[in-house]
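Action item from last week, closing it out:
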Amino acid sequence: MLKRKIPSTGEELPVVGLGTWRSFDIGTGQEERSTQTKVLNMFFAAGGSVIDSSPMYGAAERVVGDLLVDAGHRANAFIATKVWTEGAQHGIDQMRRSMELLRVSVIDLMQIHNLVDWETHLSTLQGWKEQGLVRYIGYRCHALHHPGV
């Protein structure tokens, strides 16, 4: 799979990622999740790694976290998710919940969604980056369709 370098670090990522909106917003049943397990297996077999989710995507973060661990792909995944709330503590709570659901102690890319309270979240995320809780900080604006890295 074609890859591009992140300018700030030189880390290479595939140009194609896996979004989780709608397709991973499903229940807990094994039969219900079998298709998504197959999708993840094919995605990683093809050289994929970037998985993008959000707290706004219903059960997607929980499903992705469960399936990555259950299918043994956690180490292969580059996890991107978002914060989309107002206020420092609400943002912290939302991001910590995402980490819990995704079953990670570090988020690879945390994006400020639609720049909601971006100054507050940017300050928090800069501190989290220094602490090693996030690797990259970005933004996701639907109007622009360009995540920042």
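Closing note: Helices lie at 30-45, 60-70, 88-102, 118-131.
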